[in-house]
Amino acid sequence: MRLLQVNFTVDQIRAIMDKKSNIRNMSVIAHVDHGKSTLTDSLVSKAGIIASARAGETRFTDTRKDEQERCITIKSTAISMYYELTENDMAFIKQCKDGSGFLINLIDSPGHVDFSSEVTAALRVTDGALVVVDCVSGVCVQTETVLRQAIAERIKPVLMMNKMDRALLELQLAPEELYQTFQRIVENVNVIISTYGEDENGPMGNIMIDPVIGTVGFGSGLHGWAFTLKQFAEMYVAKFAAKGEGQLSPSERCKKVEDMMKKLWAQREKTGLSSERVYSGASVDLATVTAPRCEIQREAFELHRFPSFLYSRTILMMGRYVEPIEDVPCGNIVGLVGVDQFLVKTGTITTFEHAHNMRVMKFSVSPVVRVAVEAKNPADLPKLVEGLKRLAKSDPMVQCIIEESGEHIIAGAGELHLEICLKDLEEDHACIPLKKSDPVVSYRETVSAESDQMCLSKSPNKHNRLYMKARPFPDGLAEDIDKGDVTSRQELKTRARYLADKYEWEVTEARKIWCFGPDGTGPNLLMDVTKGVQYLNEIKDSVVAGFQWATKEGVLCEENLRAVRFDVHDVTLHTDAIHRGGGQIIPTARRVLYACQITAEPRLMEPVYLVEIQCPEQVVGGIYGVLNRKRGHVFEESQVMGTPMFIVKAFLPVNESFGFTADLRSNPGGQAFPQCVFDHWQILQGDPQDPASKPFQIVAETRKRKGLKEGIPALDNFLDKL
């Protein structure tokens, strides 16, 4: 492969941007420390952007100082590179092409689980994913997470087995052992793809990886060499078909990473698929219809087309540098300067007045760890508020919340994520000294049985009555809602049949789901099981509003509800519409929902991490001791073939995870390396209404922190008598 050297210019990149069939937008995704940034360095070096002598050490896409210090990637970073292929390689590309020059828009994403939201954001704007796996460590927990994210975003993966130099030099594996290692990794990746992907008849077709078809590469990012079976076959033929001087020279032995790009999807083929996953709302929306046949000559961003606001400029992102560029055709990745002032978190920029928003990203992790912040100097409060707004825009996952008590809360995916967010807030966004609380965990409220009585609440004017009950979800339904298998947007009969077949619900009842909550998508349901009630539809919106309110702030400590089904059994309404308005019904609905929760054996749910720990055999016993002290339990233990390393998998409550890494490294002699990823919610043993239980203490602490009255409200506050 011939690569353009350092003398290429932005003008040359701009020229190739018009060749839509020669653009590849790709993400590099992997488990932490599997070599993404080093591999990207090698690619950047071959593109002539950095000196080849410094490739692998520069970490060109790690643009922040703390990324360089910690040697991990924290933010996704984009870079554009120009590649030119030989005629022999061009014949291998089956897709439409225009010349031998290709523009690769590459995004290097983080591998640490706390920054998974950055991976989701990178996948949303790209068309293909290069999945990097350390061939010594194999497929790890975060490899599965990022692959699952890629498949959810309908991104076609190709595999790069990195660090072959370690397998050859450190482990000194025999050829057969090396082959078995490669085969096992390919099988593990394909198991993940088949588990989370669609069948071959789905929109993406067959996305299983196979070295024979060129979707698997082997190499070393640190040393800048790689090959696919195609290159290996060519080298084999060249070596054994030639004699004497015709044998391969040393310079020809190291083929560069190239077929990875050839197997990524072209933008032209991807847009039709993207429209279905990216846009929400009616499928006949003009934006959705026009996306697959985007006008090639039309520029994606023309400044004069946006009368409501103006960008100050468009930029091309080049790792740690940016280059100004006048215009950018569709199909490319571009930075917009000046648009942030109009965004709260994410947004859709369009020229079509009635377009639907692009679908909000669904993350594989949840912001379950919280910390309270306040300015050391009260006069700096406006700067803190402005800094929190900027922080919320700069990170796709972080949540900045203001409690009713006036407390400012930052919620993140884990300890490291919060640490980085607080550093950014203090040094970049607010630029003021801060006081920070200890991290606390988000909980969920639920019920463990059906309400022991029919709950009645009367409206303030006493003319309307609501009769309801609560019951817990069957196992697995809340997870199905989280995954999107059951949603409010599904066709009514399809959803009812799914619930009837899998959870044995009555089909007639399953068709009467009023809404999901909180926020219209959460894992709680409001259902109508009434028979022949007058005026019911007139109060539906008011009851739904009360349901959204109650599920967002539960009765125990105003945490979100989870896995609760509320049934509307009967209503008695005033015949005059003015006496059954929202002002009467909404607070009544909230009261009766709280009564249902209290009478259905309320419980607290805590978030749980899946922990994957790599360690030598001699320290496994010490790991068990640390996990037992922190209420964790091991469910799998296996040896990495060909190495003395063991992988221990365990569940660990998030509340017990603070200081877990330090504990682990101090006890087994610093030889254990954990990765924690949010896995599920589990019910905390004990009754929150029993003063001797742990849930009671957590509820009391949470209520105190939020400035609520001491103690769970009594049932009499919500339950009325006939």
Automatic annotation (TrEMBL):
PROSITE patterns: G_TR_1, G_TR_2. CDD domains: aeEF2_snRNP_like_IV, eEF2_snRNP_like_C, EF2, EF2_snRNP_III. The keyword Cell membrane does not apply. It catalyses: GTP + H2O = GDP + phosphate + H(+). Residues 21-251 form the Tr-type G domain. Gene3D superfamilies: 3.30.230.10, 3.30.70.240, Elongation Factor G (Translational Gtpase), domain 3, P-loop containing nucleotide triphosphate hydrolases, Translation factors. It is found in: Cytoplasm. GO terms for cellular component: cytosol; ribonucleoprotein complex. PANTHER family: ELONGATION FACTOR 2B-RELATED, TRANSLATION ELONGATION FACTOR-RELATED. This is Elongation factor 2-like. The gene is LOC107596287.
